[in-house]
Amino acid sequence: MYYLAPTMIMSRIAMSKIKLNLIIVSCLLIQATCSMAITNESQFFDLVSKGHQTNWIGKRLIVGWTKERCIAVESMVVNKAPNIRYSRSVLPDKKETNRTQTGKRSRRRKGGRKEQLGRQREPLNPRSIKIVTADILLQHQKLIRDNYQLQLVEDNESICWRDSQLWSIKPRNPDRDRLFKVWVDSETGILLRVEIKGQRNQWLSFLTQIQFDPQSILEEVTQYKTLKTGDKKQEYRFVSRSEAEKALQRELILPERLPSGFKVDQIELMDISPTPAAHIRCTDGLEVISVFQNQGRRRDRRDRRNNIRKEKISDVHVTIMDRADVHIYRWTGDSVNFTLIGSLPESEMAQIVESFINNP
To answer: Which DSSP letter does residue 105 get?
Structure first.
């Protein structure tokens, strides 16, 4: 027994050294993995930034669909460095998008009222179209790095007859299900194709044409400036919090807390009757939630769809409408009307409502 004791002590020392070495190796592997992830993210954003500085024009087709409906729009896209970047709708025509889209005719009742036969479909609202652009990726780069995991899936894949890199972008929050796939041109950095997939809907956008000819770019920019001069449509008015409160003549109500990873991005002032409204836009980089605030009597339109319910949140009656791609929450507190729109899980949407109610 006396002879075995030194051997046992030496064995314990050796085991401790082995454990220490294993811990050091594990730490080095974790550090290498993190470093590789940061390198991959930098590679992605560097390539997108290159495309942002490339002069080009093209046509982009955007398609969105759910189990019940499908919408599509084609746009002319212009990217002329350093600061001319826009898209204008080509198809469908604006006049067509303003009409109610139905599959059946209508008939006139006695007294002159029309009765619509069949179920009405929701009209296409261009602002509801979800698309990821280079502007969004670069503007919210820090938020995207913090809230999403970027991974290079395929280094050389052919899209639109061009070599591209396929990247997946997944939320770090396990409760959020929206997944993004982005195909980036390996040579120019242009976003050739983007897929957005969630439980409720899917969106696909891809370029059908690309041109790099300087003369064609100049002609399109000139045409756009001419159209913009003749268009009397009011531009979005993005203001500071103090400017919004001055226009509203009251304090702007902000939530007590936002969902994990979100921050207030923009405040838009909207001139609507009878009183102006504030549109507070919050984002985690890719997901967006919107909150509208205005005073005055709310005039709720009659809606015959069945996907409307009422619930009590923090002792306040809230009307909830489930649409194909978003949840809409409406309530009134202290003479202020609130409308919350977003596609986050219902549990998180309810928490946002509660946060507004508890922070008057």
So the answer is: -
